[in-house]
Specification:
CATH superfamily of the largest domain: q2cbj1_9rhob like domain
Order of helices and strands: EHEHEHHHEEEEEEEHHHHEE
Distance between the termini: 64 Å
Largest sheet: 7 strands, mixed
Oligomer: single chain
Helix content: 10-25%
CATH class of the largest domain: Mainly Beta
Number of strands: 12
Number of domains: 2
Number of helices: 9
Radius of gyration: 19 Å
Structural class: alpha+beta
Length: 286
């Protein structure tokens, strides 16, 4: 059986990206401190408690999916914008766009008795559009907020499934569990066939799902509602841009009179032209 390549937190982004492009999935062990994971869980606890269970099998009838992490958990920023993850993502998505952006954030809690999720590809969210076979448009991550085991529903992936036909979603016998200790992360691309595992334990299995996409694609989670301007302004500038408060490609996402949304968000008045912020002028006495 093919295994998922595993790396230490000190591994080079180049090596991890190469394995990701080849096999379609990797695990980086112990990348996040356990204390940070616990802080995220504490900040998100009231929101998780208020989240309803899924209404159908794919989202999980014993599963809660709680989003808007940037607005609800300041500690989550360290994982959403982890430098190593962003470096790897840039190497995978960079050849196809000037920028990439946050696609979604959600804590996935699979309760005891939860059934295995149907296998799928994440990029099928784009209306099943047939992207070129060798083109990556999405990078997905699931951080283990608990130890991920075969028993409690570790995410299952099919290594080397990047260019398999869609019928390969029936190949459950080829799946490998992304077992890993708390604070580790499994990374896979939008072309990799995968699905949540069945939770046969007596405990909830908690994972943080953060995905990234090309800057010219629509985000799955509407970040402008999940993380509105009054909250986005309190985040580091590179996180604001990652969330989508920036131009995608040449002209995507501008505001009103062709203003750069990053300039508008931060109180700068940009000239009426596309491009970067090199001509942005601070607003004074306005």
């Amino acid at each position: 059986m093919t295994v998922i390549p595993r790396f230490a937190a000190s591994a080079a982004a180049e090596d991890i990206a190469q394995a990701l492009q080849t096999v379609g999935c990797v695990i980086i062990e112990n990348l996040a401190p356990v204390e940070l994971v616990d802080q995220i869980l504490a900040e998100m606890a009231p929101y998780i408690d208020a989240t309803p269970y899924g209404s159908e099998d794919f989202t999980g009838r014993t599963t809660k999916r709680t989003g808007a992490l940037l607005a609800r958990s300041r500690a989550s920023v360290d994982l959403v914008a982890h430098p190593l993850i962003l470096d790897i993502t840039q190497k995978i998505l960079g050849p196809h766009a000037d920028t990439f952006q946050l696609h979604l954030t959600q804590i996935i809690n699979i309760g005891p008795g939860g059934q295995a999720q149907g296998l799928h590809r994440d990029q099928w969210c784009f209306n099943m559009f047939p992207f070129p076979a060798d083109m990556d448009v999405e990078v997905s991550t699931i951080w283990a907020l608990d130890n991920f085991t075969e028993e409690n529903g570790a995410t299952r992936v099919i290594p080397n499934s990047l260019n398999d036909p869609p019928t390969a979603i029936e190949d459950n016998h080829r799946t490998v569990g992304a077992t890993m200790p708390k604070g580790s992360v499994v990374i896979y691309t939008g072309r990799t066939i995968h699905g949540g595992g069945a939770n046969q334990s007596t405990q909830i299995r908690r994972g943080l799902n953060v995905d990234y996409i090309l800057g010219w694609l629509r985000q799955e989670e509407n970040q402008y509602l999940s993380c509105p301007p009054e909250i986005a302004r309190t985040l580091p500038e590179h996180v604001q841009k990652l969330a989508g408060y920036s131009l995608g490609s040449y002209a995507l996402g501008y505001q009103d009179d062709i203003r750069d949304p990053f300039a508008v968000l931060n109180g700068y008045e940009a000239g009426s032209s596309f491009g970067g912020l090199d001509t942005a002028i601070p607003i004074v006495n306005k």
